[in-house]
Amino acid sequence: MAKQGTLLVVDDNRNILTSLRYLLVDYFARILTLDSPVTIPTVLAQNEVDVVLLDMNFASGINNGNEGLYWLKEIRRIRPQAGVVLFTAYADIDLAVTGIKEGAADFVVKPWNNDKLIQTLVEVYNKVCAQKKEKKRTAGKASRTDTAMYWGNSPAIRPLRALVEKVSTTDANILITGENGTGKDMLAREIHRLSNRKDGPMVVVDMGAITESLFESELFGHVKGSFTDAHADRIGRFEAADGGTLFLDEIANLPYYLQAKLLTAIQKRSFIKVGSNLPQPTNIRLICATNRDLDEMVRKGEFREDLLYRINTIHLHIPSLRERKEDILPLARMFLERYAKQYGRTNGTFSPDAAARLLAYPWYGNIRELQHTIEKAVILADDGELRAESLQLAPVTEKEEVRAAGEKAETVFHTLDEMERTMIQQALDQCGSNLTQAAVKLGVTRQTLYNKMKRYGL
């Protein structure tokens, strides 16, 4: 076979290191050896190591014979994508089994069989390569981005930005709250971009779009034959996000009885694939987001209090666009430039009346509504300058009056979309934002309701 990949061998017996180098030189492109584990962090930081062959005990170490487990955890922390094979004597097989539970790929017993050792290391390397390919594919679907977030400079946003810059480099679980359309997903991507995990994948999961019957398969994966349509093994979102960030959007939409399964995975930092009995460790940074009041849901018995504590180590609240009026025009200009380029229009400006209209409008749909408004205006505009009428915004007084009356008063609808949006909002208000109850009231499925909410920015 062609030589490929980088192998790191850590053992305090230099004779063993020499023997292994001669044995494995035909199988790995690079072989690094260490006779002490102390420099493991430095070597991992300076080299793209694919597989580590790690001795379980060292002549002088820590943890009373558990050195291997300690350094296993360090390797998993520093380079989670590397496969670790434990090197152990017969007397330490129990420790090796514990190591498998802690994230090691396999173990080899001393004195070793050459063919068995080579086979084990090559299989682990191939598995590492396969996981890298799968993560790249999944990360492409997960909307990974290196583009910096536009913050604005309003007094309402500055404290949030300072807090984000402080906590992004930690691995603390983060809960992002804010109204629909405020940019919770953009903030999650910004946190990932600023984190130490930025080179790892960011996997986004819309909790409202996952059907309840496929929840475990989507998040934890499944093995071939575990259910009727399981024709092949499939990795879940937890495994795809290993070494990176897992973003669970709309976390409040997760049904109560499924919240316990998510809590277990977060607490144990491991998961079990559907159809398997083997716990698989995971190394993720968890970010969750919601537009609902989780504390109120806990009081109503709709959200687990222990799960809230787990996901809410750091709480970040995004202010509404109404609270940061200084950022409205800079954001509008940014969208104007983007869509003018996208649709081949003259990169125009806002007329004074259009600028005033933008500032006066309440923007209940926040940044998402502003973005859609500018996009539509650019498409319909005839020249470079956008005037107030091009924005097609409803009069503020009418909008305010309808909202103040709880949209129960008689309203003049201009389109079917406006009528549908109002009916959905009324159903959500009457059902206390319970999606299942609102869907029943409207005579649609929960998924259809959720899709329409996304469409109308509710």
Automatic annotation (TrEMBL):
Residues that bear 4-aspartylphosphate: D55
Response regulatory domain mapped to chain residues: 6-125
Domain of life: Bacteria
Signal peptide (UniProt feature, chain positions): none
Stored InterPro entries: AAA+_ATPase, AAA_lid_NorR, CheY-like_superfamily, Homeodomain-like_sf, HTH_Fis, P-loop_NTPase, Sig_transdc_resp-reg_receiver, Sigma_54_int
Biological process according to GO: phosphorelay signal transduction system; regulation of DNA-templated transcription
Domain Sigma-54 factor interaction: 150-379
Keyword ATP-binding: yes
Keywords from the named record: ATP-binding, Nucleotide-binding, Phosphoprotein, Transcription, Transcription regulation
One Pfam family from the record: HTH_8
PANTHER family xrefs: ALGINATE BIOSYNTHESIS TRANSCRIPTIONAL REGULATORY PROTEIN ALGB, TRANSCRIPTIONAL REGULATORY PROTEIN
Protein name: Two component, sigma54 specific, transcriptional regulator, Fis family
Native source species: Phocaeicola salanitronis (strain DSM 18170 / JCM 13657 / CCUG 60908 / BL78)
Organismal lineage: Bacteria, Pseudomonadati, Bacteroidota, Bacteroidia, Bacteroidales
